[in-house]
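Expect chain and fold; thus:
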Amino acid sequence: NTENIMNKINEVIWNSGLRKGFIAKKMGISQSNISMWIDERRKPNKQRIKELCKILDCTKEDLFPGEQKGK
């Protein structure tokens, strides 16, 4: 369910102790992009997911629990 996915992104960001502005700057995007992911208005693409995982030191499975591999 999309709500759980986006809430999970917010949870992982919160638990990292990093600010959304810092993460956005590292990714070369606006903070509003990250907010849109959290607010379920957009979903990050595969490249953004990889970048987010690297910055947050997490796996795709941490951000998208229960999602089948390869999707």
